[in-house]
């Protein structure tokens, strides 16, 4: 299997030794058991805590060998941030994407990335010397405690600190390989207000990255530059927010009387303001207040709800030795980090875990490539085909006009049709034109294409105008754009639900209507021409959101 002169490692331990030099390593910093201080920098050689005087190392056993290393009561795992940011510029896969926020125009009016927000723009105006270099890194920090053991086991609180670079595009910046584990605060107890003690190494490095930077080689431009970084956001729940900021947040919620009184001065929402009666404040009920039976339904739904695994759940699965929680997590994380980085340099045809097609990813159509984009939509049908059926005339008409109106190549014919109607009826309103288009455009389009005087010679357009077969195939599910859809009937017995749909559409001239419904059928429509000239349609049952029942 391997070329001559090469051989596989004998075991997993040997394989880890082979890839160890490729990793970025981890710094182990001893800490006081009471979270008072780190044995770091000028305190590195101290043998006891300078605040509570607790010994640094566990006492040796009687008769123990003196050559054995001392074992600290507590140890912080610190994974330096700067080398991990530099590594993003050593691979062409990530180096070019680190400039995405500057080189790609944002869609007007749409907030799809932090660079579209006011905070990013204000930062650029305040620090133009930083913003002028698009390769400087914008960071966000997140932390929370989690129990690495199973529910019901002994309590344990481990606190990872995650740093994410937001230079990357939306589909990469929240991906697991680019969420850097920088600190692993040891348990078994929460650090509480002493979290800042463990953040010292990271804060020190962030100061260097902001004030000085580090020289970095950019493989995409084949040049060195001084990379700087700025921590722009922290993301956490309310208790962790108090620990990170150092502020007291106990009792500071949005639901107390003082907070509700602020509504009168800040929000101006009269329906939510407190009303004073007989020396007491009465809280008005919100419009979404649930009855007892309705609360039971919602709570049952939450109980059965299954959410995707988060990043911390991934760290939890790395614990192989419950007596050494932090060591297990860090060792497994370093191996995964190294293997992901190395996969960037493999040939394109080499399959790796990071290149694996996700279970919900669609597969591009191969073979015939039509000039009509509606036939080239990547998607994958799944599940056994259910018996075919014949569309009703109403279903055929609705499907035909929907497909035509959503085909970019047909836009010029739609514009010609609209121009003719406006010439005939100058006072025609957009809503009335939409109604006429739904009823007449399909037949008008067919007659226009078939008329030789109009000079329509494209084969795909001519075949498209003749429509599809009324006999359609039925499927149970469909993968498209990274999402999995299945029919309501197919998922009745499943604990997960993938049959709900929502379309932000418009009804003629009204662009404010959103449609909500349930997927009842997945239909594959076959047009004339090559075998793969097919379009997948969803038949849905729509809800009337205007009713209160």
Structure overview:
Residues 312-360 form the DUF4218 domain. The chain is 29% helix and 18% strand. With 549 residues, it is an alpha+beta fold. It folds into two domains: 19-58 and 69-250 and 317-343, no CATH class; 373-542, no CATH class. The strands form five sheets. The protein has a six-stranded mixed sheet, with helices on both faces. Strands 12, 13, 16, 17 and 18 form a five-stranded antiparallel sheet that branches. Strands 11-14-15 form a three-stranded antiparallel sheet, with no helix packed on it. Helix 16 packs across helix 17. The protein starts with 11 loop residues before the first helix and ends in a 7-residue tail after the last strand.
- The helix/strand class is alpha+beta
Give the count of helical stretches.
18
How would you characterize the largest beta sheet? 6 strands, mixed
**Ends apart, CA distance between termini:** 67 Å
What is the mean predicted local confidence, pLDDT?
A: 83
InterPro entries: DUF4218, Transposase_21
Protein name: DUF4218 domain-containing protein
Organism: Sesamum radiatum
Pfam families: DUF4218 (PF13960), Transposase_21 (PF02992)
Write the layout of secondary structure elements.
Layout: H1 12-19, E1 27-31, E2 74-78, H2 82-87, H3 92-95, H4 100-103, H5 118-126, H6 128-131, E3 137-143, E4 159-165, H7 170-173, E5 180-185, H8 195-198, H9 200-211, E6 214-218, E7 223-227, E8 229-235, H10 238-245, H11 257-261, E9 275-277, E10 280-282, H12 292-304, H13 311-316, H14 325-343, E11 380-382, E12 386-390, H15 393-405, H16 411-424, H17 430-450, H18 459-465, E13 471-475, E14 477-480, E15 483-486, E16 500-504, E17 514-526, E18 534-542
Parallel strand pairs: 3-8
Antiparallel strand pairs: 1-2, 2-5, 3-4, 4-5, 6-7, 9-10, 11-14, 12-13, 13-17, 14-15, 16-17, 17-18
């Amino acid at each position: 299997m391997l070329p001559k002169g090469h051989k596989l490692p004998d075991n997993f331990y040997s394989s880890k030794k082979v890839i160890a030099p490729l990793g970025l390593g981890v710094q182990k910093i001893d800490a006081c058991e009471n979270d008072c201080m780190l044995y770091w920098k000028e305190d590195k050689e101290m043998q006891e805590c300078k605040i509570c005087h607790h010994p640094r190392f566990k006492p040796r056993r009687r008769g123990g060998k003196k050559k054995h290393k001392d074992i600290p009561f507590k140890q912080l795992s610190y994974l330096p941030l700067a080398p991990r940011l530099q590594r993003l510029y050593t691979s062409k896969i990530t180096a070019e994407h680190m400039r995405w926020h500057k080189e790609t125009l944002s869609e007007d009016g749409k907030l799809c990335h932090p660079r579209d927000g006011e905070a990013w723009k204000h930062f650029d105006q305040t620090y133009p010397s930083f913003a002028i270099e698009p390769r400087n890194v914008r960071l966000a920090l997140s932390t929370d405690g989690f129990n690495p053991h199973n529910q019901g086991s002994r309590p344990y609180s481990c606190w990872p600190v995650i740093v994410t670079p937001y230079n990357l595009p939306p589909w990469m910046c929240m991906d697991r390989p680019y969420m850097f584990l920088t600190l692993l605060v040891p348990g078994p107890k929460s650090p509480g207000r002493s979290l800042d003690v463990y953040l010292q190494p990271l804060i020190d490095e962030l100061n260097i990255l902001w004030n000085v930077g580090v020289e970095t080689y950019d493989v995409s431009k084949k040049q060195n530059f001084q990379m700087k970084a700025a921590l722009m956001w922290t993301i956490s729940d309310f208790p962790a927010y108090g620990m990170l900021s150092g502020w007291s947040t106990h009792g500071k919620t949005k639901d107390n009387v003082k907070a509700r009184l602020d509504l009168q001065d800040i929000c101006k929402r009269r329906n939510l303001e407190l009303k004073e009666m007989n020396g007491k404040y009465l809280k008005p009920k919100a419009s979404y207040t649930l009855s007892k039976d309705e609360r039971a339904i919602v709570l049952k739904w939450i109980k059965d709800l299954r959410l995707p695994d988060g990043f911390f759940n991934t760290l939890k699965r790395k614990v192989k030795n419950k007596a050494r929680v932090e060591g297990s997590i860090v060792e497994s994380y370093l191996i995964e980090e190294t293997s992901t980085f190395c996969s960037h340099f493999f040939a394109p045809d080499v399959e790796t875990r990071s290149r694996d097609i996700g279970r919900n990813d669609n597969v591009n159509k191969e073979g015939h490539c039509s000039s009509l984009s509606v036939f080239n939509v990547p998607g994958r049908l799944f599940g056994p085909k259910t018996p075919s059926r014949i569309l009703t005339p109403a279903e055929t008409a609705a499907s035909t006009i929907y497909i035509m109106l959503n085909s970019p190549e047909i836009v010029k014919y739609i514009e010609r049709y609209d121009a003719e109607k406006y010439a005939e009826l100058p006072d025609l309103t957009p809503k009335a034109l939409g109604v006429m288009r739904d009823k007449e455009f399909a037949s008008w389009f067919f007659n226009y294409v078939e008329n030789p005087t109009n000079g329509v010679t494209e084969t795909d357009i001519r075949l498209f105008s003749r429509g599809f077969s009324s006999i359609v195939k039925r499927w149970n599910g469909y993968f498209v754009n990274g999402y999995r859809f299945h029919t309501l009937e197919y998922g009745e017995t499943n604990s997960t639900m993938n049959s709900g749909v929502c379309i932000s559409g418009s009804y003629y001239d009204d662009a404010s209507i959103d449609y909500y419904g349930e997927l009842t059928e997945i239909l594959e429509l076959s047009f004339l021409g090559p075998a793969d000239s097919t379009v997948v349609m969803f038949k849905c049952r729509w809800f009337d959101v205007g009713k209160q029942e």
